[in-house]
Specification:
single chain; alpha+beta
Length: about 180
């Protein structure tokens, strides 16, 4: 695949369900489960955002989609846990789009959004085997923290936090299209 430009970030939800379904199947494979052939087979805890992304990621949250040459490349959601804390949800880059700065562009847009809605910090959890994602988070200034919620489930998760007033996320991000 030849990419002629960098990622464009949009808040258009047209590709959100497909991106989330790809994320769920990648997560299932990484944790030793077979995955699902269609979204109707998803367990209820995945259906929460998949079935109604507009409701789940409603403002002050958001879901950002990256496009490369007009094709979906990846996505990430953000939720506010409280007035000061934004949570990263389901960062995923499709295999064909890896290596083009998609994840970094999505996170930059998420950080800008979180600051805009008044968050002072961003938290996230991640499967420990996602070493590439963990390296990105650390490069962006995230630091390891203990679990920040009681409902993380049975899977072991690595948890991270970023202060939006310190570290790498405080520089001005390039303006990206939002529609």
């Amino acid at each position: 695949m030849t990419i002629t430009s960098g990622p464009t970030i949009t808040t258009d939800l047209a590709h959100t369900r497909d991106l989330l379904f790809s994320y769920y199947n990648a997560t299932a494979r990484e944790t030793g489960y077979p995955g699902w052939e269609n979204p109707d087979q998803l367990p209820p805890y995945f259906g929460v955002d998949h079935d109604d992304p507009a409701g789940y990621y409603a403002h002050p949250g958001a879901y950002f989609t990256a496009l490369l040459d007009g094709r979906p490349a990846g996505g990430v959601g953000v939720h506010l846990l409280d007035a000061d804390t934004a949570e990263v949800k389901r960062l995923y880059v499709l295999p064909h789009a890896r290596g083009y700065g998609v994840a970094r562009a999505l996170m930059a847009r998420l950080h800008t959004h979180a600051r805009t809605v008044g968050a002072h910090r961003v938290v996230l959890d991640c499967l420990p085997q996602r070493t590439g994602a963990i390296s990105l988070y650390r490069a962006l200034g995230y630091r390891d923290i203990p679990p920040y919620r009681d409902d993380h489930g049975l899977l072991p998760l690595a948890c991270f936090e970023l202060s939006l007033h310190g570290g790498h996320a405080t520089h001005t991000e390039p303006t990206e299209p939002t529609d």
